[in-house]
């Protein structure tokens, strides 16, 4: 994507810098012409016209040199500012693109509920991962209300699989007091010890984690 914006940035810098240089040259010419006229008028009314004209030429030369130095400094500063602005535009465009991708991914996560078999497999994996992180004997699951019946169909087998995997027993219950918002993409929040410890494995939180902690990795893979 950076290659797509580079020609535009280069062209923009060249045109704006050229316009600024032309404006400075016209300004210098006008001011120098005014000084020459002033010197000429003074020379007409002064018997030492030759001396005045000589000093006038020195003043004009010094004036031109000062203006050229000023022009060079202002041109470099203007080009630097335009380059910085162009880079910020490109960075913002990249960030907007990443945000669009994240929004698209979230829409796809919302669509998982239309694929019952796939969503069930994902939900089992998220719960098992949470159990293995907590390693507690009793846990509660916080789910969307629409997922409660689905999860209850595989709780018994999940407890057995957890025991086979870790050698530990666990009792899993659905939290009767808390639910995930129905408009969320799903997933699970697992808590234990009277809700003092928990693992948030909801799909929304996992996506947010991806776009914050893993943002540099996502950005690098998209644009390099």
What key attributes describe this structure?
about 70% helix; alpha+beta; hypothetical protein PF0899 fold; 2 domains; about 220 residues; disordered N terminus
Description:
This protein has 224 residues and is α+β, with helices and mostly antiparallel strands. The chain folds into 2 domains: 2-111; 116-212, ATP synthase, E subunit, C-terminal (hypothetical protein PF0899 fold, 2-Layer Sandwich), CATH 3.30.2320. Helices cover 71% and strands 9% of the residues. The model is unreliable at 1-12 (pLDDT under 50).
Helix proportion: over 70%
Order of adjacent strands in the largest pleated sheet? 2-1-3-4
Number of helices: 7
Mean of pLDDT: 77
Shape: rod-shaped
What is the topological layout?
Elements: H1 2-44, H2 49-110, H3 116-134, E1 138-142, H4 148-152, H5 155-166, E2 171-174, E3 187-192, E4 197-202, H6 203-212, H7 215-223
Helix pairs in contact: 1-2, 2-6
Describe the structure concisely for a colleague.
With about 220 residues, the chain is an alpha+beta fold. The chain has helices at about 1-45, 50-110, 115-135, 150, 155-165, 205-210, 215-224, and strands spanning about 140, 170-175, 185-190, 195-200.
